[in-house]
């Protein structure tokens, strides 16, 4: 490999060839020793909203997710490689960054033939299943059983598509229904094999519609505002044109349940009459107060922020409650001791930081991914790991844990040395992570980035204006400016640092074979035969 050409990148096993990780194989672990895997995955559930992370805003507790952290390891520096749903999901299952896994943006579909860790586990003797939000368009492959939403799916009374060819609407809230399906499978799985179960929630993705069970939460709580809620984007030219601001782009009815007329109730038209009644009643008093004396200007932004946080965090509370249901069931069934429990989400999200409610950017809040792993006997309880890890690492990790050979090229590194280290970062661990966003949605400029332990460099490769042309680089000192408000790329005092980060950026692009900027453009993605899709794509 190219490892000798840029030693500054730290651990240079980031790109592996088949066999390089051949220190383990299917015969090394007996069937009884092979751990089960429960993989909890949420959509847009950010680290700031998990109390175990304890940084950023002080928000309500998530006791069940925290339980996984208390009994396992929390990764403090876990990142995605492309902060948007479908691409991150593809990286999670393949171990490859977007430019090599076939999905660069939301238009992409997972190649059914592509190797993934669930498929490798299935071929290696595991019984496998996925329930909930898959969001990669083609039917899941490598699973004994699946029931998934199509695309984004619905919060209420979602339509599910099943591996046996059926599809049907299931009444209830999606977070509860996904858990019901997962627990049902767990109770009737093939117990002669170890299992891998993916429990993948839609919540708390926009437009947040909490379960009726969580609607009364946080009614009288005033959440702390992030210090950057009214960011003016000085020195960060591209950020100023983002179109997912709480101020300018949050919709009163569909995003905030502000029902001011009959037409607004269209956003809950899918609900049953009883669900509808519960929703209208829950927001009635507050909505009437708003309409009687509507706030304006910054007061309106603050009102929207509070309503957004209430509904987002109610959705998070629903996920947390359902994580608890599964943990309890593992306990009851005597499975907890030999089951790796992983909690993560497809990317981070802005809870008002920089005035936003979105992802996409390489700035910290959306670059970070929650990652918490419990594995009794292997992972020391209550440990926190500061090493930089990325969603490219999951495939090699799970396969090593299961004693299944990795037989395709991946960009990631097995996290096993971290999981078994008691929280210490092994010598030579990676010191740089790579990021590239290509989608272009919601006014977010195409960009790529590297992050080290203390600095971050962003590169905007397709400037959309003269001002952006002059501001193609952003450099942040993460220790002294954790909110990334001061772009040092134009500060002469940081010229040497900028140059060294640019060199490192180039070396990282070379490491991952991603230097050809001419292919850095959104596209419709490869199409597959219609029968491979969960729902056949519309004809172009
Ligand atoms: Ca997402």
Structure description:
With 540 residues, the chain is an alpha/beta fold. It folds into three domains: 4-208 and 311-429, 3-Layer(aba) Sandwich (Alkaline Phosphatase, subunit A), CATH 3.40.720; 252-307, no CATH class; 434-520, Arylsulfatase, C-terminal domain (2-Layer Sandwich). It contains 13 helices and 14 strands. The protein has helices at residues 63-70, 85-94, 98-101, 117-123, 174-188, 246-249, 273-292, 297-332, 364-367, 394-402, 416-419, 466-469, 495-511; strands spanning 36-42, 73-79, 127-132, 145-148, 159-162, 167-169, 195-200, 339-345, 371-374, 383-390, 433-437, 447-451, 455-460, 473-477. It has a ten-stranded mixed β-sheet, with helices on both faces. Strands 11-12-13-14 form a four-stranded antiparallel β-sheet, with helices on one face. Strand 12 (447-451) and strand 13 (455-460) form a beta hairpin. Helix 4 (117-123) packs parallel to helix 10 and helix 5 packs parallel to helix 8. Mean pLDDT is 93; it is low at 1-27. The structure holds calcium ion. Calcium ion (CA) binds next to loops.
């Amino acid at each position: 490999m190219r490892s000798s050409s840029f030693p500054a990148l730290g651990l240079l096993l980031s790109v592996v060839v088949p066999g390089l990780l051949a220190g383990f194989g299917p015969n090394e672990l007996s069937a009884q020793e092979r751990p089960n895997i429960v993989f909890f995955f949420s959509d847009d559930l950010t680290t700031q909203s998990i109390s175990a992370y304890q940084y950023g805003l002080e928000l309500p507790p998530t006791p069940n997710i925290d339980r996984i952290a208390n009994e396992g390891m929390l990764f403090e520096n876990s990142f995605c490689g492309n902060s948007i749903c479908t691409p991150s999901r593809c990286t999670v299952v393949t171990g490859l960054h977007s430019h090599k896994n076939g999905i660069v943006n939301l238009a992409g579909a997972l190649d059914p033939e592509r190797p993934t860790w669930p498929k490798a586990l299935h071929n290696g003797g595991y019984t496998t299943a996925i329930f909930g939000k898959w969001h990669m368009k083609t039917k899941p492959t490598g699973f004994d059983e699946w029931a998934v939403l199509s695309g984004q799916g619905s919060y209420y009374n979602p339509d599910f598509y099943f591996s046996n060819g059926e599809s049907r609407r299931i009444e209830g809230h999606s977070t509860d229904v996904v858990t019901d399906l997962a627990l049902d499978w767990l109770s009737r799985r093939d117990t002669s094999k170890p299992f891998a179960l993916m429990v993948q929630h839609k919540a708390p993705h926009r437009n947040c519609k909490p379960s009726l069970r969580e609607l009364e939460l946080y009614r009288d709580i005033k959440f702390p505002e992030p210090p950057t809620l009214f960011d003016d984007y000085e020195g960060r030219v591209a950020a100023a044109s983002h179109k997912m601001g709480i101020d300018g782009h949050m919709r009163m009815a569909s995003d905030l349940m502000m029902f001011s007329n009959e037409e607004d109730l269209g956003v809950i038209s899918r609900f049953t009459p009883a669900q509808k009644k519960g929703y209208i009643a829950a927001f009635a008093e507050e909505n009437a107060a708003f309409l009687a004396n509507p706030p304006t200007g910054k007061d309106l932004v603050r009102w929207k922020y509070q309503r957004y946080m209430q509904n987002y965090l109610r959705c998070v509370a629903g996920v947390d409650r359902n994580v608890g249901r599964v943990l309890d069931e593992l306990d009851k069934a005597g499975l907890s001791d030999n089951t790796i429990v992983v909690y993560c989400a497809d990317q981070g999200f802005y809870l008002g930081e920089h005035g936003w409610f979105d992802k996409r950017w390489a700035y910290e809040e959306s670059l970070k991914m929650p990652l918490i792993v419990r594995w009794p006997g292997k992972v020391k309880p209550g440990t926190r790991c500061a090493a930089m890890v990325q969603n490219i690492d999951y495939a090699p990790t799970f396969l090593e844990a299961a004693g299944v050979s990795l037989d395709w090229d991946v960009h990631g590194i097995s996290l096993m040395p971290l999981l078994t280290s008691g929280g210490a970062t092994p010598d030579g661990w990676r010191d740089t992570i790579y990021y590239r966003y290509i989608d272009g949605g919601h006014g977010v400029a195409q960009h790529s980035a590297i992050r080290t332990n203390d600095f971050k460099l962003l590169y905007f490769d397709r400037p959309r204006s003269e001002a952006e042309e002059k501001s193609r680089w952003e450099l942040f000192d993460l220790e002294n400016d954790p909110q990334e408000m001061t772009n040092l790329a134009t500060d002469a005092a940081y010229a040497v640092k900028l140059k060294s980060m640019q060199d490192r950026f180039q070396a990282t692009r070379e490491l991952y074979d991603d230097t050809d900027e001419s292919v850095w453009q959104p596209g419709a993605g490869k199409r597959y035969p219609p029968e491979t899709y969960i729902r056949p794509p519309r004809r172009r």
